[in-house]
Design brief:
about 500 residues, alpha+beta, Nucleotidyltransferase, domain 5, 4 domains, five-stranded antiparallel beta sheet, 15 strands, about 45% helix
Length: about 500
């Protein structure tokens, strides 16, 4: 007896007598309907004003940004793949209104509207706050690296750039001299009957030289901004494809990357502030982070936390000036050791020395004073004890690190009082409880972004990549709002969103 398999309810290849809505094939609770309602809240008037009435009708900017946001939320970042999905996937078709642009239109829109993506991010934050999804009660800052749209194979060091520049200039001079000799010979033989065109190899070398000079100038400008007045190291590199990207990484995994910084609200992991940095570390990122939070929301958070990568004088000074209730993790060498010094053979760290703010000096566990020995223009300070006292000290083998037998030194900066106050603050139980929340507020957000598939940029240059990063952060917030609707925390009626009272 044959097995009774299910049969199709209709002949799926036959033409239907009565018209039907193709989107009826989607489930009634499909998330694309929710995304569409959210997209209706976006204000694209700043973009619309840039369009002209002349020429062919353009795609509406709200449609283009809706397609990009929905595509990024689904882990589709390639403009060609977005176009394909808009022609094959019903949910993409619904967002595009069955009117998907060519991939080039999508790509150009993404490259040319970085300013609007910053605005789009701000709109996503304000919408989340209006729905009660972010209160700025506790905001945590963190950073993560994202690959630039280039590679190490498209780069050259400063020393190599200078060497290659000289080589190309010499080769061009030789080619020009040969061309001039050839010109003279032809003029003598043919008179006015023929001309002479620049050889192809000369054109190529001149174009190559122009690229070398441009990259060299960009590298020198970048290094001058980062380290004013300092000589550029020969090993410093720059990428030809993206001259703004910098080599970053750890544990031997180095590549051209950008440092994405996000400030996340505790309530629902809404990103309330973001910026893209060209710095490999986070020692100067608090100021732009706080500035972006204030520009986006109009206010500052009640509490602010960050890991020990942000424990620098510049960051602490910014927090002090902003009068923020901040919680920054103490560096390992500055954490007070729970095991008493005389009960272990551990090495002495900076935390074992007592700082006297009034006299601007340190006192070691043996009672010796380390006085200020030098101070640089950028605020760095070096304190040192007396060689004779250190030589007789019982802690010498565990304290002095100099191979020449010099006295113990401590390196710090002119922000040491701020550092000491933060160290003392982070020793309290209340601070430890508040700081514990940091890792569950901000760290999962980077995981959510990268697990969606976004790990590298699709555009080149700082301005464009910062715009794309704003788009990524806006997508994250909109996904959170969509999730809140699905959970019943927010309702969507007639295209309007409103929070459901608790």
């Amino acid at each position: 007896m044959p097995i009774p398999f299910k049969k199709s309810p209709i002949e799926f290849k036959q033409r239907l007598l009565f018209p039907s809505n193709v989107f009826d094939l989607l489930p009634n609770d499909h998330e694309c309907y929710l995304y569409h309602d959210i997209f209706q809240q976006l204000d694209t008037s700043s973009l619309e004003s840039k369009y002209s009435t002349k020429g062919q009708n353009a795609y509406h900017p709200k449609s283009l940004v809706s397609i990009l946001i929905y595509s990024y939320s689904q882990g589709v970042f390639s403009s060609r793949q977005i176009e394909r999905r808009c022609n094959e996937d019903l949910s993409f078709m619904y967002i595009a209104g069955m009117n998907c642009p060519n991939f080039r239109v999508l790509s150009d829109f993404r490259k040319n509207n970085s300013d609007f993506f910053h605005e789009c991010f701000k709109q996503s934050v304000m919408l989340a706050m209006e729905l009660g999804m972010a209160s700025l009660g506790h905001v945590s800052l963190d950073g993560s690296k994202f690959k630039a749209n280039t590679s190490k194979h498209k780069a050259m060091s400063h020393a190599r750039l200078e060497e290659k520049e000289k080589e190309l200039m010499a080769e061009i001079d030789i080619l020009i001299e040969k061309a001039n000799k050839c010109d003279e010979a032809e003029d003598y033989e043919y008179k006015e009957k023929t001309g002479y065109e620049i050889p192809e190899d000369l054109k190529f070398k001149e174009e190559r030289l122009a690229k070398i000079k441009s990259a060299k100038e960009a590298l020198e400008k970048r290094e001058e901004e980062k380290n004013p007045g300092k000589e550029i190291e020969g090993k410093k590199q720059i990428s030809f494809a993206d001259t703004d990207a910098c080599i970053m990484g750890k544990k031997g995994n180095f590549d051209y990357q950008y440092n994405g910084q996000i400030s996340v609200d505790e309530d629902n992991q809404i990103i309330v502030g973001q910026h893209l940095s060209q710095n490999a570390n986070d020692k100067k990122e608090v100021e732009p982070a706080i500035k972006n939070i204030e520009e986006t929301t109009g206010t500052l958070p009640a509490k602010f936390s960050a890991d020990n990568g942000y424990m620098s004088g510049d960051n602490l000074d910014t927090l002090e000036s902003a009068d923020l209730d901040a919680y920054v993790a103490t560096d390992k060498g500055e954490k007070k050791n729970k095991i008493p010094l005389d009960e272990s053979n551990r090495k002495l760290t900076k935390a074992d020395f007592t700082y006297n703010e009034q006299d601007d000096c340190f006192t070691c566990p043996a009672g010796q004073t380390l006085i200020l020995k030098s101070k640089s223009k950028d605020g760095k300070k070096i304190y040192q004890g007396a060689s004779e006292a250190c030589g007789k000290c019982d802690y010498k083998s565990r304290c002095c690190k100099s191979a020449k037998g010099q006295a113990r030194t401590i390196n710090t900066d002119d922000k040491e009082p701020l550092r000491q106050r933060m160290n003392e603050k982070m020793e309290t139980e209340n601070s430890k409880e508040i700081y514990k929340k940091r890792k569950v507020i901000v760290e999962p957000v980077f995981g959510q972004i990268k697990n969606t598939g976004f790990r590298s940029f699709s555009v080149c240059g700082y301005e464009k990549t910062s715009g794309e990063f704003s788009l990524v952060c806006a997508v994250h917030n909109i996904k959170k709002i969509t999730k809140a609707i699905l959970k019943g925390l927010v309702r969507s009626e007639l295209g309007k969103l409103e929070a459901i009272p608790a």
